[in-house]
């Protein structure tokens, strides 16, 4: 496995991605092209959580997938949107231009978003599959498309009272365009399949977020698998000792940690692995 960092740019904005590339297995009878997962970590749009970067990237590597971590635009002098959407489109385009020697299955690009990163992935699943929105947010200059998404305890609707971000000033610093505040309303009949999981007792991002997204997908007839675990805090990541914060056992959750196995089964069922 090779890990490398790359500097990319979209709309004159520089950003960084990290590639976790699988090697070929020498005793296979033929070469294998691997799917690739693009991870958008959480962090409240103010930082990129390390707990949702390399630990999850390596876990996905172990399932037989290349991984790219997207360090998207954060709140600062400029808003998160629309730059984060353009950065995702550029990253997909960049993956599509990887050399054949990288052995990427370019038809199996899967987007994974956690918490705030989940909003970027959820919104992209609507914007990038709608020709008018794709033009409006200047994504049409980039090639390639994603095949599916995975959302872990995602921010979906930024207007949910009491749920993050529970402040209009923060919402506008994330996106001055209210069109992007409610990712479920961006979905359309061309949006891609989704695997979604969250805990019912999430006190930061209320579980209604993921429920609304899956409900909208169901209305549109889009493939979706949803797991709501009975208990657990926000930001579990893997839910194991690998991503547990020191001295904080609340980040251990044997039940919710099963999301990885459930996701693997869904990938196989959908024909993305195996």
TrEMBL record:
The keyword Metal-binding does not apply. The keyword Hydrolase applies. InterPro entries: AB_hydrolase_fold, BD-FAE-like_dom, GDXG_lipolytic_enzyme. SUPFAM superfamilies: alpha/beta-Hydrolases (SSF53474). It holds the Pfam family BD-FAE. One of its GO terms (molecular function) is hydrolase activity. Gene3D superfamilies: alpha/beta hydrolase (3.40.50.1820). This is Esterase. It comes from Companilactobacillus nuruki.
